[in-house]
Amino acid sequence: MRKKTDTKAFMDSKAWTLCLTGYLLIFVVLCWWLHNGWVWAIFSLTVLFAAVLVYGRGRDRGSFKANGPIGEQAAGSFKENEQMFESLFEHNPNMVCLLNTAGDIMKANGMTERVLGFSKRQMEQSSFASFMLGESLGKVEQLFEQLRTGLPISLKLGAQHREGYRVDLDATAVPIREDGELTGIIMFGQDITAAKRTEEQIRHMAFYDDMTGLPNRRLFMLQLEEALALAKKHEHYVAVFYLDVDRFKVVNDCFGHDYGDMLLLQMAERLTRCVSESDFVARTEGDEFAVLFNGLTRIEQVHELAGAIFHVLEEPFLLEQYQLHVTASIGVALNVGEDGEEDADALTKSADIALTRAKEKGKNNYQVFNSEMKSVSIQKLTLEGELRTAIQQKQLMLHYQPQMDIESGAIVGFEALIRWKHPVRGMISPLEFIPFSEESGLIVPIGEWVLKEACRQNKLWHDQGLVYVPVSVNLSTRQFLQHNLRDMVEEVLRETGLHPSYLELEITESSTMDVEHAILLLLELKSLGVKISIDDFGTGYSSLSYLKKFPIDKLKIDQSFVRDIMTDPNDAAIVASIISMTRHMNLKVIAEGVETAEQLGFLHTNHCNEIQGYWFSPPLSAPQAEELLLRQQQAAAADGRFPS
To answer: Which of 402, 403, 421, 618 gets the most CB atoms within 10 Å of its CB?
Structure first.
């Protein structure tokens, strides 16, 4: 009977050992296949529990005596189970520690040594909490509280390596209970320091600007949402400042992008001087920054804060050997008042609208958002959509204002002037939509259409046998600086069949600020055989010393000088000087805006060549201009002169 019992015990022990071994092999393959840390943790827990169970069963059966062959086999099996437990514990791919109920480390494996840098002897009998950073001590206390309830717990802890650096752990603690009492703790851990560092790097890339180190737009919006929630709760004000560096493109173009980056870095540093710990500075894009001011108690503080920003910008910026004085435009939006917004997205849009208004008002100033600005912005958006439709549906048309020779009274040319025949609003003045077209870039397709239509109409008049006179077309600054301008003009002349000598291109003085580039462009255009005139002369920036270098045919005196030549001696002197100068430079001069006989007499006395204005004729539709040409041609055929 004794022999049968011992044999059964041995067989039970052997069966458990075989099952455990098979289970281990299957789980090792599964873990290797999944590469999952949690699977390894479950594996480790299961292995240890199974090993402890086998160890316990062997110990319970250990009353088998080592008498006889069966007893010796049972004792050997027990010893093998114990060795297996030790091997699994020591070579576990995770940190494993056995703790007593006081939280002292009773046993630690080799991975724990490698992760924390302390030897087993240094760790054993030491408190587990003594290896944790201060921020994790509270978590360790909570851990032991929960373990006493019999429930395992997983949490992330920060430990300190023997050499002093931080080690991040993903830890799982499992209680060991006997008869319902906590008798020990098994602690597993994985070193996630590298993974956490990667996670932080990814977060930094997602929320911070890589050049200045400032938060980016995404993080700014999150902070703004929190600030607005707190402002609503505590009833204080929040202000958003959008700041844009004035003429930043000029810095990039003149000095290069490296210098532009240096300027932005210094700008970021100066803006941080203007904020407190509760405020927030971000670089949203390009040369644009956003500042969030929290906890304002008075709306008037906005003016003080804007003044502080302008003050820190007064000091010149040092870009290696260069000193630059840089200004900025600022748009401000508040979460209070009838124009205040309480939504982060709406508030930033309002600040952006105010920034646009600050730029329109000459830059180097700040504007606080109001509802009128929003209305203007909506009107602009509406205008842009309608203008695009006007281009597609051919709602644009040209009027032609005659230019008269002051001596003979004959028509010597027409200036093509664009008009917009809106289906609802009627005829819209170019003063209303041309500035917006310049700003939005629509002036380029519009300008190309004007050039093509003016050349087509002039060629049609020529084909009808009317007087051959040139047509003048204004080139915007955007058009003039296009790299393919010459090719575009050449293609239009080829398509319409107009001889180049009957096309006159008018450019403004402001387009010629880059003198060398302007000369090259003008020479390219002149090579086509077209004529060139400087429009609105006297209102731009060109120097007279450069003017003689330009390959031009005519100067056009701006109507702002002509208007008051009979009442303002200064304007009269300016006009007389321009006429005299052009005569000495062998250029023709035309005065625009002539509305009275007295103005005509003054210009005639001072030997002005041509005039344009309502005294002679307002802008005419194509049929009206054709009729005028026909009448002049008939009068010239009748008596050889144009009636006065």
So the answer is: 403
Residue range 499-506: average pLDDT?
95
CA angle 203, 205, 209 (to 5 degrees): 125
Give me the half-sphere count of Cα atoms (radius 13 Å) on the Cβ side of residue 346.
12
Mean pLDDT of the chain: 82
Query: Which among 506, 493, 516 is positioned nearest to 536, based on CA atoms?
Result: 506
Using a cut of 0.85, tell me whether the model's pTM lies above it. no
Q: What are phi and psi of 280, to 5 degrees?
A: -150, 130
**Structure tokens of 468?**
């051959």
Phi, psi at residue 325, to the nearest 5°? -95, 120
Alpha carbon of residue 428 to chain centroid: 35
**Angle (CA) 480 483 487, round 5°:** 90
User: Residue 420: left (phi > 0), alpha (psi -120 to 50), or beta?
Assistant: beta
- Spatial distance between the Cα atoms of 103 and 127, rounded to a whole number of angstroms: 6
Q: b/e per residue, 410-420, with b = 16+ CB within 10 A?
A: bbbbbbbbbbb
Residues 448 and 488: beta-carbon distance below 8 Å: yes
> Can you state the angle between helices 515-526 and 485-496, rounded to 10 degrees?
20
| Closest to 421 in 3D by CA, of 379, 451, 445, 389 | 389
pLDDT band at 54 (very low <50, low <70, confident <90, very high): very low
The helix/strand/coil state of 613 is coil
Which of these, 431, 399, 430, 429, lies nearest to 415 by C-alpha position? 399
Tell me the C-alpha to C-alpha distance, in Å, between residue 88 and each of 11, 20, 52, 117, 454: 23, 12, 11, 21, 92
What the block records as the tokens of 28 is 């090792």
* Per-residue model confidence as pLDDT tens digits over 165-222: 999 999 998 898 887 788 888 888 889 888 888 777 777 777 888 888 899 999 999 9
Main-chain dihedrals φ then ψ at residue 374, nearest 5 degrees: -65, -40
